[in-house]
Amino acid sequence: MSLPDMVEYDRSESDPREEEVTRVTDQAIRVVPAGWYEDPSDPAQVRWWNGIAWTDHTQSKPDLDAADDLEESFAGPAAVRSRTRIRPTATMESWIVAFTPVLLFAALFVGVWAWLYVEPTFLVAGIVLAFVYLVTVVVAILDRRKLARWGHTPPPFAAVLLTAPVYLLIRALKLPKSWGQLIGWAISAVLLLGGPAAAWGAGALTSVEIATKIQYEIRQELVGSGQASAVSCPPIADTMTVGSIYTCAVTRPDGGEGKLWVSIDSDHGDYSYSFAIR
Asked: 64: how many CB neighbours lie within 10 A of its CB?
């Protein structure tokens, strides 16, 4: 590409045709973007045009493959950086962390079911919570690595150990336009855990009260009659559903272990139990 020849005109003359040519030539020069062009004074080299006028910077005329490198070397690092692709801050891993309440809800459902129908122990709840926490940590680590590859400054590594909402908060404070994940976590937590937890909590208080009453009465009867030395029932059991059955652990007077099955017979707290001592 070459610029229109720059011709000097004698401004003292008032020929209107020459003034029109000068005006058109000036407009043509102004619209040519900055870059390396063939030097009007020496076709064997190129001269830098800054968008307004020729400069004193010249180079030997490069081949076509080296033309872009020549322009970047003169324009400087700022021009090169302007061509760098700006990566987004929303990664797939960050959205997985944002929706961990879904995983937590499913895991807690399994944990409650296992507590009521498999083995009433806090070990199940601990395993469930540890599983969700471990998944969150692993996905957050992958998110940090991807952010680093994309040229962003990721949250500190310690942040991945501080649970999902804390990690997302620190992430949002360090990275622009990344509050969506934290908002997504809050919304999913309220929808999936808030309402059901409140409803379950209200019923759980009554259920715990009934379970405690049943354990006290059975313990009084069996220990008082000498059939057992200890009775231990789960503090949380399905005592609100007619026909539900849960298990209590019984220690016999000889030190042996046994089981006692409690059946809920009515929604007024009536129950029955069967117990076999060998």
From this structure: 6
Task: Using DSSP, state whether 56 is helix, strand or coil.
Answer: strand
Assessment of whether the complete model's pTM goes beyond 0.70 = no
Q: Which two tokens stand for residue 187?
A: 């919304």
pLDDT in tens, 60-105: 776 554 545 555 555 544 444 444 455 788 889 999 999 888 888 8
Q: Give me the DSSP letters along 117-177.
A: HT---HHHHHHHHHHHHHHHHHHHHHHHHHHHHTT--PPPGGGGGS-HHHHHHHHHHHSTT
Helix (H, G, I), strand (E, B) or coil at 224: helix
What backbone phi and psi angles, to 5 degrees, belong to 94?
Answer: -65, -35
For residues 239 and 207, what is the distance between their CA atoms, to the nearest angstrom? 6
Condensed to tens digits (0 to 9), the pLDDT of residues 18-51 reads 555 455 455 544 567 778 888 888 888 888 888 7
- How many C-alpha atoms does 48 have within 13 Å on its Cβ side? 12
Q: Within 13 Å of residue 16, how many CA atoms lie on the same side as its CB?
A: 0
* Residue 48, phi then psi, degrees to nearest 5: -80, 125
Residues whose CB falls within 8 Å of the CB of residue 191, separated by 6 or more in sequence, listed in order: none
Cβ atoms of 124 and 212 within 8 Å: the answer is no
The single-letter DSSP state of residue 228 is -
Q: 146 with 91: CB under 8 angstroms?
A: yes
